[in-house]
Amino acid sequence: MQILSSKPAGLTVIKEYEETGSLKDSTRRLMVNIIVAHMREKEGRAVSKGAKEFHAFGIVSLFPTLKDPYSKKGYEHFYDIQSNTGFLEWRMKTVQRKSRTSSTSQSRVELKGGPTLLRTVGALDDQRMGDECMEAMSLLHHTTDHDTVFKKMKETFHYRQQILHDPQRSADVLQMFPRFLDVKGLISQDFSLMFGVEVASRFLEKWSTSFKEKVIQEARKLKETALLKRHLKAALKEDSDTTDDPE
User: Fold this and answer.
1) Which residues of the chain fall short of a pLDDT of 50?
2) pTM to 2 decimals?
3) Measured by CB atoms within 10 angstroms of the end CB, which terminus of the chain is less buried, N or C?
């Protein structure tokens, strides 16, 4: 891949692979940064899905041991065209977000009480930030290992709280963290991280009688999406079956 061989930092990536047969996480991030910078230089801010898939394929062709043996094509962890996720896509979004932040000052909406109240959460170990957080989120889209899902969801808890309290992005949280939809216990884990195990247990006890209707009311205030409409419809249809716990 000429992109790497034409740059000093890229030569560092190639040398490490030649010497070890693999890449450290930090070196892999360096490689992704170089490739994303190249794509943006060639195509501008709107990089096509085809270009991202082409470079993902190029990575595993140049570095075969980086292939994912459990995915269909072997490079979906770098870029999956179906879900528009992967290391390349998350780096692209990080660069775009930083660019928007530096060029415009976003207006802040005052948040008042209830679930919109920004609470102070105690320090948690192993919280991922920046590119490491994006990589953890990308892995969550592809892994089927139950323990890994819970571990990565815990590591991205602080970032997820920022999303939930940003009126511009809160409605997209299920697209960014789709495992909430198919893995039971993740909402309970987040609630435990925020309030502690004892309070979380009371949350489950009072879900049907105290919280379910309030959650539905808050959901109606969010930006409408097809996914939100589907889940609201399902929740409202359960009027005669109110014993379900949140997942």
Assistant:
1) 104-111, 240, 243
2) 0.52
3) C
